[in-house]
Specification:
Blueprint: H1 5-10, H2 31-37, H3 43-47, H4 50-64, E1 68-70, H5 77-81, E2 86-89, E3 93-96, H6 102-109, H7 112-115, H8 117-129, E4 135-141, H9 143-152, H10 164-172, H11 174-198, E5 202-207, H12 215-235, E6 242-246, H13 252-259, E7 264-266, H14 273-280, E8 285-289, H15 291-296, H16 298-312, E9 317-321, H17 331-340
Parallel strand pairs: 1-4, 4-5, 5-6, 6-7, 7-8, 8-9
Antiparallel strand pairs: 2-3
Helix pairs in contact: 2-4, 4-8, 6-11, 8-11, 9-10, 9-11, 10-11, 11-12, 13-14, 16-17
Length: about 350
């Protein structure tokens, strides 16, 4: 049997139809997920329960037949592994305590993969149950994105969509911020290595907060840490494809694709079709349907799917959203997209 179509696309093949998976495809829009989540005492416990996390990962594959599963976890497991208190408040999102010193976190970074071994057990359980034609994706948060939550600490504004405080730190206290990014590169590389060893066939780096940066800050907070993370991950022996997702990078996505040695680039909702074509000339791409349009459905959804197919379907491309699926998206709208691209009868 040939490799999963998802992996073939990441290698640069143009296929009869693009492989498809959705960011946050396991989640609250699925009734089976809500029932499962109700059995766990809190979100962190849910993520670190291998049986529950594996079941959540498999649910959308059973329902929709996506071409890839992404392990159910959270990017903020890494701060916990580095000694920072992390919790989730209902209706409010993630909360973090004061960030430990970079020196203290550096002592824990090498053990991050071992600390989060439960995620590896989840991956192994999923791989045992996935059919060979379905790929399994692991992931981590990118250093800057994770750092925004960690640096915010007691301010706790990130959960309300504010990133100004963390970005101010990047200007005002560059030594501390850069040291934190260095720690996160090492911890994340160890975490990705553990996931690959446990059965992940591709790994995605989620940079959720790359938007609105001047080019010099983008180079410092996004490009340099991504280059270092990829280099360190490869140094640890990881050979599976790596996908970089610099959400909000706009025209800088081209520079990202050219300079960061990842295998494919995730594009967000706001990426113009022409920019996507230029990125696609450099590396395979992934994205970029608007999750709000998926929520709306109807003829407008069909039109946009057709536009994406026409613009990007002639090159290596993985069909995905430009950000995570929303909790109130109707299941029928997901099915509508899959039928439109020929991934479901």
């Amino acid at each position: 049997m040939s490799d999963p179509v998802f992996l073939r696309a990441l290698r640069g093949e143009t296929l009869e139809r693009p492989p498809v998976w959705f960011m946050r495809q396991a989640g609250r829009y699925l009734p089976e997920y809500r029932a499962l989540r109700a059995e766990a005492p809190d979100f962190i416990a849910f993520c670190l329960n291998p049986e529950m996390a594996a079941e959540a990962t498999l649910q959308p594959l059973r329902r929709f037949g996506f071409d890839a599963a992404i392990i159910f976890a959270d990017i903020l497991l890494i701060p916990q592994a580095l000694g920072q208190e992390v919790w989730f408040e209902a209706g409010e999102g993630p909360r973090l305590g004061a960030m430990p010193s970079p020196g203290h976190m550096a002592e824990l970074a090498a053990g991050a993969g071992d600390h989060l071994g439960a995620v590896g057990r989840s991956l192994s359980l999923v791989r045992e149950q996935l059919t060979p034609e379905k790929a399994l994706i692991g992931f981590c948060g990118a250093p800057w994105t994770v750092a925004t939550y960690m640096l915010d600490g007691e301010h706790r504004t990130i959960g309300k969509g504010e990133r100004a405080q963390a970005r101010t730190y990047a200007y005002a206290d560059p030594k501390r911020v850069d040291a934190t990014l260095d720690v996160l590169v090492e911890a994340s590389a160890r975490y990705l290595k553990m996931q690959a060893d446990a059965g992940a066939q591709a790994l995605q780096i989620f940079e959720s907060w790359a938007e609105g940066m001047p080019d010099d800050l983008f180079e410092r907070l996004v490009l340099a840490p991504h280059k270092a993370l990829v280099a360190r991950t490869r140094e640890l022996g990881v050979t599976v494809p790596l996908i970089g997702f610099p959400r909000g990078s706009a025209a800088l996505a081209e520079r990202y694709a050219a300079e960061v040695p990842i295998d494919a680039v995730g594009l967000d909702t706001a990426c113009p079709l022409e920019v996507g074509k230029r990125v696609q000339a450099i590396k395979p791409i992934q994205g970029a349907l608007d999750p709000l349009l998926l929520r709306a459905g109807g003829a407008a959804l069909d039109r946009r799917v057709d536009q994406l197919m026409e613009a990007w379907g002639q090159g290596p491309w993985v069909f995905n959203l430009g950000h995570g699926i929303l909790p109130d998206v109707p299941i029928s709208h997901v099915e509508q997209v899959l039928r439109r691209i020929g991934a479901q009868d």
